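FAQ

Q: What does a record look like?
A: Structure on top, sequence underneath. For example:
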């Protein structure tokens, strides 16, 4: 898994070097809501078999480029490459893959060895941060960080103007996170209240013919945090980045959870404690029968101007700087 270069460019991150490489596998998915467990087991086994050699190769590159710290988003390669290079590593996570894979062992025993190997790698990291909402409880010695999200860059009024949202119309954003969805379930019969316009980024094989729906390509000219800030509500999969962004903007969030994904219960516990969220059934979403759910979201009254008390991104940056200075 490798974050594409355009993601950093769109976020206006300053990049010294970008070298694409597969740093972990995660979960092989058929679509945003369905996992392919046998394919995941094969891919992770192959990845771990080559990990030691890849870590030595990447560690040599780190020494050559004179890096002083490796910050990892649950990447086993990053941790082992840092150790090979003899420099500190820093793990940021709201879950780790060994914890996610645990339920798969009953039907796929090969995950037992995978879990042991990954757990040993994660436990060897020198510096460890857990990002709220994290899963599986607090790990000993971990530094706790508030939700980390990117800040909007454009005034919501301008974003809505560019989208053609008229004064008096409510804007709903449908977001499935970083995995594109073809949204084959959208038909002209989708139930959307008359005063609502839905904005949907995705991969559309055929544009839906519905007067209330505006489609965008998965990578559009709109910065995703700007869409969240401009929306009256968001409906979508409860993944970390979406949870963090709606939390920062206090945008009403109708969330979908996968019962077969281990992080769902921890995310549900966090979201149920918020005053701007409602859970939406997968059946309603897949049939696009959303009128009742939109009414529930519209009845919520969170203060859009009351942001979360601590900026998790600033906390993370401060921790990286402190770790670097102590190296």
């Amino acid at each position: 898994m490798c974050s594409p270069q355009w993601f950093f460019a769109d976020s206006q991150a300053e990049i010294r070097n970008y070298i694409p490489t597969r740093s972990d596998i995660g979960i092989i998915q058929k679509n945003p809501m369905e996992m392919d467990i046998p394919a995941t087991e094969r891919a992770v086994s192959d990845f771990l078999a080559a990990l030691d050699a890849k870590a030595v190769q990447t560690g040599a590159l780190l020494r050559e480029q004179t890096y002083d710290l490796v910050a990892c988003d649950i990447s086993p390669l990053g941790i082992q490459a840092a150790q090979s290079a003899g420099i500190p590593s820093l793990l940021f996570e709201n879950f780790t893959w060994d914890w996610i894979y645990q339920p798969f062992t009953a039907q796929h025993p090969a995950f037992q060895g995978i879990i042991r190997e990954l757990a040993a790698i994660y436990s060897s990291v020198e510096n460890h941060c857990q990002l709220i909402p994290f899963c599986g409880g607090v790990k000993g010695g971990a530094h706790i960080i508030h939700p980390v999200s990117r800040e909007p860059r454009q005034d919501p009024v301008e974003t809505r103007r560019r989208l053609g949202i008229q004064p008096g119309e409510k804007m709903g954003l449908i977001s499935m996170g970083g995995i594109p969805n073809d949204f084959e379930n959208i038909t002209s019969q989708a139930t959307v209240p008359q005063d609502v316009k839905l904005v949907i980024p995705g991969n559309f094989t055929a544009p839906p013919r519905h007067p209330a729906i505006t489609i965008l390509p998965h990578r559009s000219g709109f910065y995703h945090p700007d869409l969240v800030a401009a929306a009256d509500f968001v409906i979508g999969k409860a993944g970390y980045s979406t949870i963090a962004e709606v939390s920062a903007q206090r945008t009403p969030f109708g969330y979908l959870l996968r019962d077969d994904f281990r992080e769902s219960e921890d995310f549900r516990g966090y979201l149920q404690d918020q005053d701007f969220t409602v859970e939406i059934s997968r059946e309603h979403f897949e049939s696009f029968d959303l009128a009742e759910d939109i009414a529930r979201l519209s009845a919520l009254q969170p203060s859009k101007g009351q942001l979360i008390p601590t900026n998790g991104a600033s906390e993370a940056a401060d921790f990286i700087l402190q770790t670097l200075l102590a190296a």
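Q: Is there anything notable about this one?
A: The longest strand covers residues 196-202.
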